[in-house]
Amino acid sequence: MHQSLICIYNLLNSLIFLSVQIQKSHYSIGKITQPHGLKGHVLVYVFSESFDWLNDVKGLYLESGEFLEIDKAQPYKKGLRILFKNITSRTQAEQLKQQKLYIERSLLSSKPGEDIYFNEIKGFMVKDEQLGELAVVETFEHHPGNDLLVINYQQKECLIPFVPEFIVSIDFENRVILMNLPEGLLDL
């Protein structure tokens, strides 16, 4: 019995280590929301509006580190409908429900002149031309009207529209986003 507990403890530690490693070296692109049909397809809510990265991947990683090879993937409503090679039934697909999916971070790096990926500016300092340093970008929210930067400013969560009208410059070398925000935006 004692030996079994040690084995389970070691297995759990290994899974936690893999989960942390995946989160450091990979970027979460979405979450499996539900199975779709009887043959193992899943619906994936994608955290970005673009699926440009899809052509560059052969598969996706689960948080556990398990690699799932993609057999078929296609846009579906506001996400993707994916069939993984080793997932052949609805029952198997059901077991993947609510799991986050990851790709290597290197696949989400923009080139000069291209649209940037939000993962590239996570942790950047947001500065306003009038107020100075505000806070670092903690995360993002995607909405139909526009994307929002989420920062913690003066002990409260603030949502800042990430739109060209407010962006003065993005300094990748110094990790700074300079903005010209409308007066009162941070008071909402």
Amino-to-carboxy terminus distance: 58 Å
Number of distinct beta strands: 13
Strand ordering within the main sheet: 1-2-5-4-3-6
Tell me about the biggest sheet? 6 strands, antiparallel, barrel
Average pLDDT value? 81
Low-confidence stretches: 9-20
Q: Which CATH architecture of the largest domain? A: Beta Barrel
- The tally of structural domains comes to 2
According to CATH, the fold-level topology of the largest domain is Elongation Factor Tu (Ef-tu), domain 3
Helix content: 10-25%
CATH homologous superfamily grouping of the largest domain: RimM
What Rg, in angstroms, do the CA atoms define? 20 Å
The total of helices stands at 2
Concise overview:
The protein has 188 residues and is α+β, with helices and mostly antiparallel strands. It has helices at residues 2-25, 90-94; strands at residues 26-36, 41-46, 59-62, 67-76, 79-84, 100-104, 125-128, 132-136, 139-142, 147-153, 156-161, 167-171, 176-179.
Observed structural traits:
single chain, 188 residues, alpha+beta, 2 domains, 4-stranded mixed β-sheet
Question: How would you characterize this protein structure?
Answer:
The chain has 188 residues and is an alpha+beta fold. It has 2 domains: 107 residues, RimM (Elongation Factor Tu (Ef-tu), domain 3); 67 residues, SH3 type barrels. It is 15% helix and 41% strand. The chain contains 2 helices and 13 strands. Strands 1-2-5-4-3-6 form a 6-stranded antiparallel barrel. Strands 8-7-13-12 form a 4-stranded mixed β-sheet, with no helix packed on it. Strand 9 and strand 10 form a beta hairpin. The longest helix has 24 residues. The chain is elongated.
